[in-house]
Amino acid sequence: xxxxxxxxxxxxxxxxxxxxxxxxxxxxxxxxxxxxxxxxxxxxxxxxxxxxxxxxxxxxxxxxxxxxxxxxxxxxxxxxxxxxxxxxxxxxxxxxxxxxxxxxxxxxxxxxxxxxxxxxxxxxxxxxxxxxxxxxxx
Length: 138
Prior knowledge:
The protein is mainly alpha-helical. It is 65% helix and 4% strand. It contains five helices and two strands; from the N terminus they run H-H-E-H-E-H-H. Helix 2 (31-56) runs antiparallel to helix 4 (90-114).
């Protein structure tokens, strides 16, 4: 599948996902449940990443102070480190994707509850990134 975000098919996938979430969400319909499930799955994503380091070892983290002494934002972007060494193995990738998928489910659920289109949110954020580029400072 193409990675082009402006693709009609990908917009339809996001809309279809949000509609399907609306159809299948029963137990955690309250906004109180939804926001706490978002927190839970955020923690589960973090835990899965850390287990990739501590249990599996497919990645390691070697953090140090970031050096912000560059002339331009482009130079700064290129010089900053992620602090991640190695690559996720298949098992860890699958687990992290599973947790991100569940998080996305509850994110779509929150959008449904508040009457917000997830596709519109993504498109607005993409447009902002396109306009501001590195000046979005995220």
